[in-house]
Design goal:
The chain is 36% helix and 26% strand. The chain has 379 residues and is an alpha/beta fold. The strands form 4 sheets. It has a 9-stranded mixed beta sheet, sandwiched between helices. Strands 3-2-1-4-5-6 form a 6-stranded parallel beta sheet, sandwiched between helices. Helix 7 crosses helix 8. Bound molecules: L-homoserine.
């Protein structure tokens, strides 16, 4: 099968390496923005040279960003090409448009590398749900924030210093706010929850609180009480919709999530009968991401078509019935916080069980009054 590759950076180079070792996948054209003499005649600068090439069966998009990636993917699907992408932003933002376009044109749209990098997460989620009902999904879906939290637990280090290190190591997104404020996880959770629950949740409906304001003092306090803090994504089947949110979470030091080191991910689904399956691995990087993109191509070669689900119900995010205690550190406590406080922990307080909907709404407002405020759910 011939492949047209859109983008040839770090991940694109990894895809070329995998394909070079095979006889069944050939990268015959590569869309580039600047001259790449090493690609010879394979380099093209016009998307039409790929979508109009009848010998190309699969288009792999690894350019990143929303535009022109979205337009190029649409053009490829309309031209009857199967599409493989590692671009979570474009799949999350245009989920209904792209999945429908793939179905209408009778081609495959696969994005396994978009959620969990090299972890075979979406493919196993798809396999699980054909036999069992999924009750819950989530976990550690961002390597940069896990790297930061892991380092902050290991030794006293300031948040800005360790973020700089994550950027130098190439873990963080170009704009690291996408990692530390939760947007990157939210895109991955939107795609995963839509697949898991045959839903059509909008990315912007999922509330989140990031790790930007966590301090060394907070981490020492958590450790003193036997907890480890991780940025966790959660989505569950709920009455009248899907419960979905992203927040720093204090997990017991003995839980699997607490032991996830460096920039690794740990993503979990729970099936009604099968129980918990957790997937651990590298959520980003040249070969992990290229691995899943090429695996998607092999699945297409083996006859896989469509998306991971062909059912989509517009679905509301409902976090009103999900409740647990929270740790809150703020210089401006208000009546609401005082009314739910049950314990003092150093500079912060621990609350009674509060609904996730109420607490994440309050936290968003509180950040406007106290930009240094930090909030974490307690599991
Ligand atoms: N910046 C992301 C992470 C890359 O750290 O996990 C993969 O989405």
């Amino acid at each position: 099968m011939n492949i047209g590759l859109l983008g040839c950076g770090v991940v694109g180079g990894g895809i070329m390496d995998f394909c070079t070792e095979r006889t069944d996948l050939h990268v015959t054209k590569v869309l580039v923005r600047r001259e790449r003499p090493e690609l010879g005649e394979r380099a093209v600068t016009d998307i039409g040279a790929i979508t109009g090439d009848d010998d190309i069966g699969i288009v792999i998009e690894v350019m990143g960003g929303l535009h022109p990636a979205y337009e190029y993917i649409c053009q490829a699907l309309r031209s009857g090409k199967h599409v493989v992408t590692a671009n979570k932003a474009v799949i999350s933002a245009f989920y209904p448009e792209l999945t429908r376009l793939a179905a209408e044109n009778g081609v495959a749209l696969r994005c396994t590398a978009a959620v969990g990098g090299g972890i075979p997460w979406l493919t196993n989620l798809e396999r699980c749900k054909r036999l069992d009902a999924i009750c819950e999904i989530g976990g550690i879906m961002n390597g940069t924030t896990n790297f930061i939290m892991d380092a902050m637990h290991a030794a006293p280090v300031s948040f800005p210093a360790i973020l700089k290190q994550a950027q130098e190591l190439g873990y963080a997104e170009a704009d690291p706010s996408a990692d530390i404020d939760g947007d990157d996880v939210r895109r991955k959770l939107t795609i995963s929850a839509n697949v898991a629950f045959d839903a059509l949740i909008r990315e912007e409906d999922i509330p989140m609180f990031g790790i930007r304001t966590v301090t060394d003092g907070d981490i020492r306090t958590f450790q003193k009480h036997g907890f480890v803090c991780k940025l966790l994504a959660t989505a569950k089947a709920a009455e009248g919709g899907v419960c979905a949110y992203i927040e720093p979470t204090l997990v017991d030091g003995h839980e699997l999530e607490a032991a996830v080191p460096k920039n690794f991910n740990l993503i979990t689904y729970c099936g009604e009968k099968i129980g918990r399956h957790s997937f651990f691995g590298q959520g980003a990087g040249r070969y992990p991401t290229a691995f899943n993109a090429v695996e998607d191509c092999l699945d297409i070669l083996a006859g896989k078509s469509g998306f991971y689900t062909d059912v989509m119900q517009p679905t509301a995010v409902r976090n009103g019935d999900e409740a647990h205690p929270y740790y809150v550190r703020t210089a401006c406590p208000d009546e609401f916080l005082r009314s739910i406080t049950v314990e003092r922990w150093a500079e912060g307080v621990v609350t009674a069980c509060v609904s996730v909907e109420e607490m994440l709404r309050w936290s968003r407002e509180q950040l406007k009054k106290d930009p240094a405020c930090f909030v974490a759910g307690i599991r």
